[in-house]
Sequence to fold (105 residues):
Amino acid sequence: MNTLDTLAQTITERAKADPDSSWTAKLLAKGPEKCAEKFGEEAVEAIIEAVKDNREGLISESADVLFHLLVMLQSRGIALDEVLAELDRRQGTSGIAEKAARPKS
Fold:
């Protein structure tokens, strides 16, 4: 089990906790929209650190992005394994070809 698997498992467990005792449970209790909003905020903070060329800031904000991505997935009932399976499916395919094969929305 790697760090992301462990974190995803912890988030699943904390989802059942009292929101007064767990940041994860509190965020999940606010609903998927709030989880998505928080993920977006963290992504923007990571972008800012990347633009500033702040290595330590980018590492820290990237950890926040990964955490909040997993919380957002949890809020919609999507397991990390499902995302990893999609990445496995795409492995060895050109990004240009993969994007061209996506259904148009």
Observations:
- The chain has a mean pLDDT of 94.
- The two ends are 36 Å apart (CA to CA).
